[in-house]
Fold these 3 entries.
Entry 1:
Amino acid sequence: MEAFEIIASVLGSLSELSTADWAFEQQVMPHINAVTKHMQLQYSALGNTKIEDGAYTLGNVFMRYGRYEQAMELYERALAGYEKALGVDHPGTLTTVNNMALVFDSQGQYEKALGLYERALAGYEKALGVDHPDTLATVDNMASVFNSQGQYEEALGLYERTLAGLEKALGVDHPDTLTTLNNMAMVFGRQGQYEKALGLYERALAGYEKALGVDHPYTLATVNNMALVFGNQGQYEKALGLYERALAGYEKALGVDHPQTLTTVDNMAMVFHSQGQYEKALGLYQRALAGREKALGVDHPGTLTTVNNMALVFGDQGQYEKAVELYERALAGSEKALGVDHPSTLTTVNNMALVFDSQGQYEKALGLYERALAGKEKALGVDHPDTLATVNNMALVFDSQGQYEKALGLYERALAGEEKALGVDHPDTLTTVNNMALVFDNQGQYEKALGLYERALAGKEKALGVDHPDTLATVNNMAVVFHRQGQYEKALELYERALARREKALGIDHPHTQDTLHDLINLHQSTGQTEQAQSLQARLHAPKSPRN
């Protein structure tokens, strides 16, 4: 067992934030696999505490590489040894319990994760006190599970407890305190409360810069998270500026192929995707994919996330075969690494359905949506935002099939759930309002459609701003209704607003901008304004999309 102890000892001294240490870890992975297998064969005959420490350390390594089953097996062995040697409530024992919960959290087994966190928390409170940093770290981890489950108020309550305790125990500018601020900001971001999120990120960023420096990975992670908010707000240039700062810092501090560096590359690609700059997006995704395959492996969840994201781009480009091929790879890998009912697996199932929907293969799409919905209801709950997103997508299919009552029934379910979980003015709620309006528009119930569009527009302008792409989609949809009603002046005003602002925000070649051009040309043609229609024709570069 000497080789095992040596490798475990060396690995225990490494930092995942060090490029050299990360590279070394990859180089010795074959040896880690070998000694772990050997250790598992002889483990029961030994009673050496060093073995427990080694098993714990190797569990952490496998956890980082997304090898959750192996990590859990090692943690279980470490736990059994620690319980015998140290006791069930010793802090060292509880640290292993905490990490086992992290594995279940990563696997989407949230109830199992919470059960272990509750055990760890009770033990820490007894052994260390309610305000000890280790106790509060477990509270923070529990909050993360509730966040993943869409139980945002429960998450915020736990984060508030953690924050108050850490501020008292460590100080307002301690990195652990700032990490909790960052985590709270993530919850507000999911709730669509972007200004609150940015306020907390700004506080965390200022603290990290002061305590750790402008190029420390923790500082850069907050820069990255702020960029995510600006991306969600449609402020793409601000987002890209922050991503560029984060990327330059990560490349300097961690190296060009470190997983955190590649996460920022992946996020930048998402911005270009949103802008309709598909080739730029694919170039960055290809860099992220090559790096993640090298650093993490071809079936690591992070690698498969990039595969999924690339497929989304090909789907939007209408390259459906390429999209399906990538989704099939992502799905097979996710099922193997995470399980058939993991939320990430089900997201890929949902996204494959989007492709079949776009191809008009509605039965295939519905079959996949039904699988995704059943899995999400089981894993996340019937009112989780991700569950409701799939409900919304199924409604889109029924709308396309002309099954308007089925579509409306699903939209009503989605809307009620989103209003409860996210609030009446959350962007996801308003997207459902917009989609319900589309059904009434298709049914020729124009007044009902306009009433819903007006609600969606007012909410989006408030939550996202007047120039956000989602806001402009509703503006364009309202124009379509006025066009169909023969209210050409109102339609013209809204089309021109949508065109000018889409061109500014997304560029003339973005599919949504091109859609508005098509609509405006049709309006001019239907009103006999041939010259205006012809002047716009030269700016057309793409066919009309099936949906805005």
Entry 2:
Amino acid sequence: MKNDYVTNFSYLKIPIRPRYPKCISKFISYFMKHGLIPFVKILGPLLGFRYPKNGVKRLPECMIKLKDGTRLATDIYIPKKVYKKNSKCATILVRLPYWKESLRILGYAYAAYGFVAILQDIRGTGHSDGFNYYLFTEREDGMETLEWISKQYWYNGKIGMTGGSYFGMTQLALSWDNDYLSCIIPAVTSTLNLWKNNGGLDIHALTTSIYRIMVNIVSNYDLPDVSIMTTLMKERYLNPRYALYNDPIRPKTRLQLSSLKGKSIEDVKKLLTGYYNVKNFDPTKRNYRIYFKFLNDFLITKGLDKDAKKMSGFLDMDASKFSQPALFLAGWQDMFLEKQLEDFSEIQANATGDAKKYSKLVIGSWAHGAVGHPESKYKNAGIARFYKEVLNIDWFNYWLKGKKHAYQDIDNPPIKYWVMGKNIWKYTEIWPPKNIVYKDLYIHSQGRANSIKGNGVLNYNLPDNEPTDHYIFDPMDPVITRGGRNLDLLKGAQDQKDAERRTDVLVYSTDPLVDGIEVTGPVKMILYACSSVTDTDFIVKLVDVYPRGKAINILDAGIRARFRNGEDNPSLIEPNKIYQYQIDLGNTSNYFRKGHRIRIEISSSNFPRFDINSNLGGENKSQAYILAEQTIFHNIKYPSHLLIPIFNDSSKKS
């Protein structure tokens, strides 16, 4: 299949080789064993925290036995004073699937600042026993772990949690109807289903990356030098044939995620073992054959339909019982951003007490644990700031130690967000902020908006009787992803020059801005288009163009034509008939500076970030794909336009 490859791992920036040479790996291993304490004492002040004064005692690995017999591998880091005096102390729990040994720095750091730190490999990963159910058992296992902590000699009634991505979810799985937790810091994570509400597109590369991660964490006892890359994974990243979409308009009934709502863990186990015809299933042991089959159905073949609004593990979540203040961390270029905004709004609307009054949302320019914008620096919203927010000694000092002046933003509005381009922090009570005004930016051309060399224009003027723009969409020659809200792929804002050279990409730009414009809030595209086929895709990208020509992506999204009326109401389109498509590009806060241009790109693919429409409409199975002739309208009757939220600086409060 190599002849079908349209990109490579180097361009996508996907690591496929060992992270470091052997000599460097040995040094890191030695350093992790002997150099962490002095490093933590240097790192803390560099991040803006006070100098840590505690020595640290790391206890031998402890295996906590759960009620079903599964043992969870757990490391305990205790301040030496607490250990020697057998005294009381607040606890910070980190439950993660990514090998607790790889993040032992967290254990040493929290213990050095006077907390007992507990790092635990979740069920079926790292050194722990058991079958991993992909989030289904995190609440049950976490509650048993909290109960175990409450019986330890140091327990003083205060427990906090922290972590990002999956181990942000392990916190949120315990966040409602729970008297043990005092506070949490869920970073770049969500309770909501990532596979829902993407305009009907499948988040192809992200699904592949999650599949790769889950295979690795279950297959390796310790952190491997390089993650497994199977032939299937490689083909899905590089070969468009493995991304072609041609589902029937009404797929066959499958096991649905939503059907598991209200069921106990035992019910879920019975349903899954019955579905896979497994006898004598032992949940305390790893069963690779069944696990990989389950994972393949859940992520790759769609044999398990991810139809629920919430993710597995959160189907029965009750936001009105959200129990503790939470410091949510999000990033403008992170894959969880849109879902986190929904999560936080749900908590604001339904939670009570301190959970409602003091929960916070901080949105930086970050990607998923990485730099999200080329102008991100250490002191503002750079990656060092992200790790400072995740570690957040001040938040824990406030809630776990009662130091009432420790967290400086405690009385500020609940949402703090970074304005890219202006490079400043702002606060708001709600999202989007109240003082924004929506304006329409219309696309124009003389019928040749193809590529950066075309004549596409973007401005506030309503179009007149203008000629249409056309391009041919070839599913086997897709536009290649460069940046965006990715996981393994190159993340964040990147130069889009390669995409803009293509004739199957329409480019519309404003003139250089006379005054800067701050776009803060949700951005939408109203697109009028027709196609020669019965189903196809339209992709839109919002771009910030610098005076010297660098064009960085701010937002990108798309829509599958059959889902133009919603993912639950599919219908094919009539060839060459004009339809209106509303494309929700997502939320951002970006200041387009004076001299910059606002640009949008319109195409029909963004591979491997999204899957690729075969243009077949669920039929013609004898063919893999067909070409589509796409026509974009911008005239009096069909005024395609970008709807942007402009922040009104004349207001003093947001």
Entry 3:
Amino acid sequence: MGYRLLTMILSPSFSRPHRLSRSMRQPILLLSLVMVSLPSSSVALPKRLILGVDGVAYRDMKALQAGVTYEDAHGFQFHRQAFTNGYFPVSRNVSTFPSTSDVAWTEILGDRPLPGYQRTYFCEALNSTIVINGVTTSMEHERQMDWEVENGFLRSMGYVFPVHMFQYEAHELVENFLNTKSQADNYYAYIRSTDDAQHLSRDILAMLCALDGKLNELRARYKAIEGRDLEILILSDHGNNHAGPGKRIQVRGFLKKAGYRITKSLGNPKDIVLPTTGIESWVEIHNSPAETEPLLERLRHLKGVDVLTARAPGQVNRFIVMNSEGERANIDWNSNRNSFRYTMETGDPIQYRPVVEALARKSQLDPEGFATADAWMAETLAHRYPVALERIVRGLTRVTLNPATILISLNNKYVHCGWLVKRGSELVTIGGTHGGLDDLNSDGILLSNFEPTKDTSATRVAALFDGFPGLRDYRTVESGAEWISGSEQALTRIARAPIDRYSRMLPGNELFLRVWTPRFGQPGVEGAVDVTIAKARKFSDGLISLGNPRPKGAAERHLTLDLPISLPDNWSDERVYPLPSDLILEPEKEYWISGRIRDREKDTRIFDFAFRTDSRGLPVAY
């Protein structure tokens, strides 16, 4: 693995054309023919490859299919065309708001919402900022892939050598697909370096041409083995504004000057939590609801703001939209019908007046002025702010378990990042970013070679393909555990495991320990799980870093869990245990929990992880 990547790093880039010598062409051609004719497995290969490519924009793929002539960053002129060999025209896949990877892929696959928009987030139950390493950790959507780069070091190489990392990913994708033992119809794979490369101003069109060539090679080898065509579906999670490095928005200094205090937790009305990761074209703000209106009025004067959105204080299903000119509108949401109303108070902050008029002409507004989510989507797919009402509402309520009070979409000439990250980015060439509400940031792709596609959104795309069946169920082959609650588990949009289908049977406010391991189904394994809980190391107030080992010699609490709850389906690899009534922990502390099962006279550890308690001393889920 390392040798192949090193070879790619040392080899010439595909950005400039180069030729093989005549003496090399014939042996390589013969070798290729031999390779194509050799089956790699006695098991039939999957019928369909579903490939996620991070951050590929609709406008780039559309241009590439049509053919485009352009100059790259070095002034070399190229004409490129790709994905024309059997592919249907590309469609839009409109992202979430914010248009960032973790929440978008989670929405695309219908998984339970994540704790935060990113892996540094504010946890309301803990009133603390949580920090998780974004390179070495994997979210649910990543673990559901049949193939992706899991190694943290290799992932980090995407930020250093993105083109070479892309070559490595494309190569490994093909080889792992051809050697899979999976008997499922669908094979899911994920390439993340396409996003890394665009952040670092690499030639995404050249990379997509190379991917097309690699997939054509795969299609030829597949047909030689299986005697049929490989079905390919390619989709991405968001676009990229290609706006260059951008100016750093001075949101921290602006808020401090206005009398606010940037903190890691909320203690008084003037406290602001401002989670920040990477270089982004959006900002999330957590604040006291009483300060929302004053903040909106102030923030519209902040240079670099494009659109401000917020939950209306004291009104559960009303949301505020403003722009930098002070124009303001309200979004009302009927959650039972999933319908929306756009009411302009002062001006038209997102230019939706023509949309409202079009819906009225088509008799798609009810007597109260609401239209369904699908009607709004159909009318706004090609708008500068596509599917804006639904995305704003979901961004402030559903795409994460800890939504922000205010979400800001930035002018594409500006970025939000920490001072150190911005200074570091000045050492390289930055090509652009994403996260904002507009089409440049939001329009990802949906592309197929087996059936025409149509413009859709992250919330809907799975329904076009039977809910993406056959995603890797990592809990059947790995061991682990997590705290869950019925109410939050019920937010899973596509039920895949029994706990998803029957989450409403769990009391919504109670806590459970979800444990999974393939050992549960093995002979000789006892049913009880022996649990050890110990207080973890102390951290500074308001800032928690999960995943740290507990110190040796800490006081320990031992429990035996042997009465899992009963659910209707057979559930051999997974069990859910209620929180023991006699478990008493200190409030607002961090703990480390581990679990073992007895297997033929031997104790086997099956999980360990860190968690935090709330003000009542109860573990906080997720």
